[in-house]
């Protein structure tokens, strides 16, 4: 057991889906995995392992924001030898061509978080997706006819902001959406030499104001889960 995950070594697959919301982890396990076993309830941050089309796969909630996601990502890689990590999250759209319920693949992630500065105070590290996972996920989504966009995202340290001018300016620089974890997932994957990808469903639109319900964020968005699982099991 690690500090925040109550599983034994071997209880967690080397391929994992990472939703922010632990109840989305439960939804994915119950709807998509065969024989799911809950390996973690510590802090209510649910984690499950089961099989998908014969492959052992896990799904673990990470909580919201970079500090929480970094704890789970660190422990999964360092204590449980997870090798392929795929975030399945939600984001707000920052581009008029990206619509609510569309999929966004984060090719890279801008961040206003200082976490990388702790390791590299004199550099601006560019957190990028694993190319093989990115290309596979894109192909899976296209084959299935899902609406998918690939590009930069913003991993923001704040959900509630008084001033959104920088957020909208980033949108004008091609950033497709805002979420809160992709950058740390990519940074830790590069640090430890494992593969990571962040896939988001657009849950709300920052420009048009269109939204989904909190119930829908917790327990639907099946297109994203299918792309995530199919990508993880392809070698
Ligand atoms: O739906 P999840 O995966 O939690 O992702 C997004 O939703 C949360 C904010 O509501 C943040 O964690 C953000 O990244
Ligand atoms: O971080 C997030 C997630 C979804 N929608 C947003 O506007 N921000």
Automatic annotation (TrEMBL):
It is an enzyme of class 2 (transferase). GO terms for biological process: purine nucleoside catabolic process. Its EC number is 2.4.2.1. Pfam families: PNP_UDP_1. Gene3D superfamilies: Nucleoside phosphorylase domain (3.40.50.1580). Keywords: Glycosyltransferase, Transferase. The record marks 217 as: Important for catalytic activity. It catalyses: uridine + phosphate = alpha-D-ribose 1-phosphate + uracil; a purine 2'-deoxy-D-ribonucleoside + phosphate = a purine nucleobase + 2-deoxy-alpha-D-ribose 1-phosphate; a purine D-ribonucleoside + phosphate = a purine nucleobase + alpha-D-ribose 1-phosphate. The active site is at residue 204. A purine D-ribonucleoside binds at residues 4, 179-181, 203-204. The keyword Transferase applies. GO terms for molecular function: purine-nucleoside phosphorylase activity; uridine phosphorylase activity. One of its GO terms (cellular component) is cytosol. Phosphate binds at residues 20, 24, 43, 87-90. Catalyzes the reversible phosphorolytic breakdown of the N-glycosidic bond in the beta-(deoxy)ribonucleoside molecules, with the formation of the corresponding free purine bases and pentose-1-phosphate. Belongs to the PNP/UDP phosphorylase family. This is Purine nucleoside phosphorylase DeoD-type. The lineage of its organism: Bacteria, Bacillati, Bacillota, Bacilli, Lactobacillales.
């Amino acid at each position: 057991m690690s500090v925040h995950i109550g599983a034994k070594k071997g209880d967690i697959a080397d391929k994992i889906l990472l939703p922010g919301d632990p109840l989305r982890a439960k939804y994915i396990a119950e709807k998509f995995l065969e024989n799911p076993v809950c390996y973690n309830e510590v802090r209510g941050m649910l984690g499950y392992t089961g099989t998908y089309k014969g492959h052992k796969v896990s799904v673990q909630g990470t909580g919201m924001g970079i500090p929480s996601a970094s704890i789970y990502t660190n422990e999964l890689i360092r204590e449980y030898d997870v090798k392929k990590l795929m975030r399945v999250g939600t984001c707000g759209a920052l581009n008029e061509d990206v619509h609510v319920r569309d999929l966004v693949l984060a090719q890279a992630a801008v961040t206003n978080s200082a976490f990388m500065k702790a390791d590299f105070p004199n550099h601006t590290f560019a957190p990028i997706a694993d190319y093989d996972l990115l290309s596979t996920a894109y192909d899976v989504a296209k084959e299935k006819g899902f609406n998918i966009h690939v590009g930069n995202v913003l991993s923001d340290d704040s959900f509630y902001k008084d001033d959104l001018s920088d957020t909208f300016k980033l949108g004008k620089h091609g950033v497709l959406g805002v979420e809160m974890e992709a950058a740390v997932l990519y940074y830790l994957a590069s640090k430890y030499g494992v593969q990571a990808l962040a896939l988001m469903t657009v849950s709300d639109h920052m420009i048009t104001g269109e939204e989904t319900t909190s119930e829908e964020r917790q327990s639907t968005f099946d297109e994203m889960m299918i792309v995530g699982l199919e990508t993880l099991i392809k070698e």
